[in-house]
Every structure is written in structure tokens, then in C-alpha cells.
Amino acid sequence: MVAIRRKGPFSPAVEEELLPPQHQHQHQQRRLPPSSPLLCSLLSSLLSTAEHRPVFLPSLRQRQSQLAMDNTGKEKEAMQLMAEADKKVKASGSFLGGMFGGNHKVEDACEMYARAANMFKMAKNWSAAGNAFCQAARLHMQLQNKLDSATSFVDAGNAYKKADPQGENCCLTNTHIAESGRFTIAAKHHITIAEVYESELVDIEKAIAHYEQAADYYKGEESNSSANKCLLKVGHYSAQLEQYQKAIEIYEQVAMNTMDNPLLKYNAKEYFFKASLCHFIVDELNAKLAIEKYEEMFPAFSDSRELKLLKKLLEAHEEQNSEAFTEAVKDFDSVSRLDQWLTTMLLRIKKTIQGDAGDLK
């Protein structure tokens, strides 16, 4: 075997590279560890233990406790910010404060109230968040920042809504938004509240009131399309609550608003159709007179499928023929699918036919 003389303190890897090829295989074999059965058994045991070692995760109670501690910390931080903001507001109102940067102090206080409100939101203390946003909004009004004031009042309203959707604070924030001159923002806020009443609280009368208020605000901003959408909601729910005269007036109003608009006039026949159905439920003669009036007002209504259906229904009702009534409805439904509202109104009309079973099948 040829001896290789090392020329320096080389590492084993480098030393292996320096070996002639015929000696590298012998060198690698010399470095392999002995494959003892005892060693293999120990390694296998260690690996098995590692695979089955239990992993300890925090329990649900521990996580809830940690979350509660985090929320408490956020609330404390928010209350400190509120206290600092209160001090700045008081300082700005003093004689010296007014002379030396009073407005800057108020602006700083606005920012602190907003930060505190967001901290309360993170802690899910919605009522406190609403109060903090209101404080910021009032200071923005004091600084004549109407847009910022309205935005803060909207944030306050959203927070109050989560705390108590039926509370008076929601209505107060809407009033403040309107007073700040932001009628569109106020209208959107009323729509949001109306949606809560119709979907979550299922108080349709209060939903109607908020949609009406939103429509009034949109009219004040000349946003007639948005106002009409709100009015259609009012008409829809008024008819469901059997307030037919109110529904008729709304559908007629919206139809007249749209029939002169080239882009929207196609929808006018739908609104006249719905008004006619409301008339029909109240009195058959009222329905006939209303249909004649609508044809004169909007000639395109005369050729509509809706009017043809109405005439068939009137004829079936006069003859007290429930089968003809049902057949006319089925023919219409095969082309234009009836929604839940139309189905409800047609069933109410059909029930006035003597001996009717009370369905459209």
C-alpha cells in the first residue's frame, strides 16, 4: 500500500479528494461505522419514541382565558386613550389652550378617540366603541370637517347596531349624519338598519320606516333611482302587510317616475301590474278602473303579458271560475316565473272566488 504524506491539516473530506483513485474506496470503507445489532436496536427504539411522543396543545379554556386577557388589555388601553383625549379637549377650551394651538389639541383628541374606538372594537365592546366614535364625530363637527364627522357617525352607528340594533343610539347617529349634510351617507345607513330589521329581527314595520327615511334622503340629493329602489321595498312590504292603498300609491309613483326614462320605462309595466293586483285584492271594480287608467297613462302596458293575464283573471273572477284562474296563472308562469310576492298576491285574489281550495295548482 502506497503511503500518502499529508502536507497540512486537511479535513477528512479534503484528504479523501487528495487520495489517488485506487485508494479512495479503501479509505471510505475504513470510515464506515460498525453496523452493530445493539446500535441498530437503540436507534430504532429512539425513533419509535419520538414518533409517539404526545404533543401538548393549549385547551379551549386556556385559549378563551388568553383571549379574555387580551380583550381586557385592549379595553384598558382604549380607556387610557379616552382619558388622554378628554384632557386635550379640556385643555383646548381653556384660555391659554385657545391661544396656543387649541385646534391642534382638538385634532389630536379626534385621533385618540378614533384609536380608542378601534381598540374597543377589537375587544368587542361595541357600545363603548360607538361612544368613542361619537366623541370623534362631534369634534370633527366642531372643526367643520363634515365628511369626517359623517364617517365617524356611520362608524358609531355600525357599532351601536351590533350592541343593540333596536336602541335609540342608532337613530341618533342617523340624525347627526343628516345634520352634517351628508344625506347620501345617512340614507345608506338607514338602508343598513332596514336590512337588519327585515332579515335578522324580522320587524317589517320598522324596516319599512327606515326604507322610507332612506328614500326621503335620496330625494333630497336628487338620487331618484336610489330613492325608487327604497320605495319599491316599502311597496313590497306594505302589500305583504295588507296595507294595499299605501302599496298602490308607491307603485304608481315609481311607475310614473320610470315610464319617461328611456332606460327604465320597460320596468313601468311591472309596477303598474303590481298596483293592479293590489287593487284587485281590495275590489274587482277598482282593478278594472285602475287598469284602464294605466293603459291611458302608459300605452306600452296595453300590449304586455301582464295586462293580458290581468284581463283573464278578471274574467275568471267574474265567472267565479277557479280552474280558469289557475290555468291563466300557469300559462303566465311557464314564460315568466312568478316570485314569492306575486304568488302570495295571486293566492289572496283566488281565495275570494267561492268554493276555492286556496292554491294555484
TrEMBL record:
The keyword Protein transport applies. The keyword Transport applies. SUPFAM superfamilies: TPR-like. Transmembrane segments: none annotated. CDD domains: SNAP (cd15832). It is a peripheral membrane protein. One of its GO terms (biological process) is synaptic transmission, glutamatergic. It is found in: Membrane. Keywords: ER-Golgi transport, Membrane, Protein transport, Transport. One of its GO terms (molecular function) is soluble NSF attachment protein activity. InterPro entries: NSF_attach, TPR-like_helical_dom_sf. GO terms for cellular component: synaptobrevin 2-SNAP-25-syntaxin-1a complex; terminal bouton; vacuolar membrane. Coiled coil: none annotated. Belongs to the SNAP family. Required for vesicular transport between the endoplasmic reticulum and the Golgi apparatus. This is Beta-soluble NSF attachment protein.
